[in-house]
Amino acid sequence: MARRKKIYEGKAKILYEGPEPGTIVQYFKDDATAFNAQKKDVIEGKGVLNNRLSEFFMSGLNQIGVPTHFLKRLNMREQLVRSCEIIPLEVIVRNYAAGSFSKRLGIEEGTQLPRPIVEYCYKDDKLGDPLVTEEHIAAFGWASQQDMDDILSLALRVNDFLSGVMLAVGIRLIDFKIEIGRVYDGDFMRLIVADEISPDSCRLWDIESGRKLDKDVFRRDLGNLTDAYSEVARRLGVMPKNATHMAKPKLIN
Ligand code: TMP
Ligand code: ASP
After folding, report:
1. Which parts pass through the membrane (predicted)?
2. Which residue of 87, 117, 157, 253 has the fewest C-beta atoms within 10 A of its own C-beta?
């Protein structure tokens, strides 16, 4: 069997060279990390769930005309995506106060914001992904003013789509993070949504009970992470069965 070329290994995913130029295979690991990898664990079934959930959100976005890197799911843990040049920013959209926003501004978690607030962090693990402003982004040339207009518009469209999809299944989208990539078509460059959209990168609260259905379950030791992600998948009709059972193939004698 031919060995695939590994392009990059991150905390939750591995990228391999794809079968055709301009494509990448994105493999979802079961590893969970938090607080810049100070807290680590392997959560059986998480990769399978995130692969399916990211497929669900990204293909929905593609269908409504929000361009993403997603091409197709290959198997339980892998999807084929368009290769792109990642802009070194974490684009965060917040509808309700939570996490670092609540800490920074002293606003109680769960407080509805007067409008969606978009924040940018510079992607650098060594620095702990610091919050930056458009001034830093322009001055250091990470993105142009036109890019920033397009990024804001993409982020708000993703927010409207995800908020609606989640609301329909009784879940409140508190906040989320996306990454944006550049793709080149001849003389033209476009921006697309890249990386992943999953409960690892969103805050999702059950509307009725307030139960957390996202990575805060792991960050804050609130229970079983796969149960929380499976609940999201079940409500969205993404995975009919329990993920942990689907995580490992069984040998048939
Ligand atoms: P924060 O409140 O910790 O800044 O997180 C805001 C949102 O971004 C939340 O939905 C979790 C997500 N997020 C990531 O996806 N990756 C990260 O490295 C961090 C810090 C947050
Ligand atoms: N920053 C990510 C998170 O907490 C993971 C990590 O920092 O290790 O979601």
Report:
1. none
2. 253
What is the CA(8)–ligand 2 centre distance, in A?
Answer: 17
Could you read off the pLDDT of 170-227 as tens digits, one per residue?
999 999 999 999 999 999 999 999 999 999 999 999 999 999 999 999 999 999 999 9
168 plus 189 within the same structural domain: yes
Written as one string, the DSSP assignment of 135-190 is: HHHHHTTSS-HHHHHHHHHHHHHHHHHHHHHHHTTTEEEEEEEEEEEEEEETTEEE
Please give the full DSSP string across 120-136, using - where no structure is assigned: EEE--GGGT--EE-HHH
Nearest atom in ligand 1 to 100's CA: 2
- Predicted TM-score (pTM) of this structure: 0.94
| Residue 147 to residue 152: CA distance in whole angstroms | 9
Which residue range is the domain that position 196 belongs to?
Answer: 85-206
What are the distances in angstroms from CA 54 to CA 50, 88, 181?
A: 6, 20, 16
CB atoms closer than 10 angstroms to residue 39: 12
| Count of domains forming the chain | 2
183 and 96 within one domain? yes
